[in-house]
Amino acid sequence: MAISVEGLFTANNVWMMLATVLVFIMHLGFAGVEAGFSQSKNTVNILFKNTLTPVIGILTYYIIGFNLMYPGFEVPGWFSFGGFFLDVPLNGNSTEYASGGYTYWTDFLFQAMFAATAATIVSGAVAERIKISSYLTFTLLFVGIVYPIIGSWKWGGGALDAAGFYDFAGSTLVHSVGGWGALAGIILLGPRIGKYVNGKVIDKPGSSVPLATIGIFLLWLGWFGFNGGSVLSGKPGAVSYVLVTTSLAACTGALGGLFAGYFVFKRLDFGMVLNGVLAGLVGITAGADVISPGWALVVGLVAGILVVFSAVTLDKFKLDDCVGAVSVHLTCGVWGTLAVGIFGVDTTGNALPFLPQLFGVAVCGITAFTSAFLIFFLLKKAFGIRVSEQHELEGLDSHEHGIRGYTIVYDE
Fold first, then answer.
1. What's the DSSP call for residue 208?
2. What sign for the dihedral angle of Cα 344, 112, 212, 193?
3. Which residue, 29, 90, 208, 239, is the most exposed by fewest CB within 10 angstroms?
4. 112 — alpha (psi -120 to 50), left (phi > 0) or beta?
5. Which residues neighbour 293 within 8 Å (Cβ) at sequence distance 6 or greater?
6. E-strand spans in 10-55?
7. Which helix (H) or strand (E) holds 200?
8. CB-side exposure of 341: number of CA atoms within 13 Å?
9. Residue 344: helix, strand or coil by DSSP?
10. Percentage above 70 pLDDT, the chain
11. Which pLDDT score, from 0 to 100, does residue 19 have?
12. For residues 171 and 286, is the Cβ–Cβ distance under 8 A?
């Protein structure tokens, strides 16, 4: 019997480590999407940020974030802190930890990948005009403090968890939190030069559609770990169910982006199809384990439609989001979380309540947006957050990094 328990523990932990690797791959996906959708003159700048974001995310989560997010509330509340750095408990590497689903170290690393993902969402929205120093400072504070405190309210056993709020893998706690941060950033940064002229939206062609496409598929691949790993064990039935609902929502999200894009722009807009895939994935993330495959199709389709109309609405307000991060992660994150209260059922077949979902979305949204806005505002007043006009027009690669992302060299 002991061998069986240990074998199950090992199998669970191997799956969780594989899921961690898949979530890590999402950073490569984000890098591809952001570099592909942005102008070629800023490619190195985009990749520079996308490389340092997981670096900062993992380190800050090690120093302070993990114990902010999982502080061990004695009574469900709004703030607690378990101390700096990691402190493995006596049962941390045994079957007594996390019901035998994984070890303490796997727990930390899996959650650290989620933390870094929240910051990466901001990166794409504010691209092509934000100072590197300001972005990295924002990431340090947002990922190190704001994200784990909000996460503790549900996943750490805090006040939202006690109120009945449900977010399986982070439509709100990861995606909309990052989306609110992105919205605050683009409001204070302002649009790129020449983006809005005489009431018209001027396209800024991306550097590589193939690269963006590769990035989308890498993100879809990573989502199998993002959602599948959130089962927090390798239970075959639960994991396979989550992967099915996740994939179905991604598919109908793509179709929603296709149809809505054609309706709005009168063309087969490939960018909206790609963002529709992500919209569907974000939408189903909150309820991948409690929404049926049939309703997952609806959740994804609505998310794919919403992402198009959200992008159009942002442009009407001259809110310049380079890659559609706010529309994908904020708009569809909110929708997916609310959808749990519309379509979700618990293990006994009872419908999950709507009001706790609405309450959780509001509380997390107000906190994330206010915190991000305050951080960006203080940085703007203290150091400035936007590059000079010359640097923006000529490209950040040459001025800030001294190299270009795309070069063609001919032999003399």
1. -
2. positive
3. 90
4. alpha
5. 244, 245, 248
6. none
7. strand 200-201
8. 16
9. coil
10. 98
11. 98
12. yes
A 10 A CB-CB count for 274 gives: 25
**Residue 120, C-beta contacts closer than 8 angstroms, at least 6 positions apart:** 26, 27, 30, 50, 53, 54, 178
What mean pLDDT do residues 247-261 have? 98
Q: Which residue in this structure is represented by tokens 């794919």?
A: 304
Q: Under a CB-based contact definition with an 8 Å cutoff, are residues 281 and 252 in contact?
A: no
Determine the residue type at 183: L
Whether 78 and 125 have beta carbons less than 8 Å apart is answered as no
Q: Which two tokens stand for residue 202?
A: 């001027």
pLDDT for 26-42, tens place per residue?
999 999 999 999 999 99
pLDDT tens, residue by residue, 103-125: 999 999 999 999 988 889 999 99
Lookup result for tokens 């979530």:
23
Residue 302 makes CB contacts below 8 A (sequence gap 6+) with 256, 283, 335, 339
User: Which residue carries 């990948």 as its tokens?
Assistant: 113
Q: Look up the pTM and report it.
A: 0.95
What does DSSP say about strands 196-197 and 200-201: parallel, antiparallel, or unpaired? antiparallel
Size (the chain), residues = 412
pLDDT confidence bin for 278, thresholds 50/70/90: very high
Q: At what angle do helices 209-228 and 2-37 cross, to 10 degrees?
A: 160
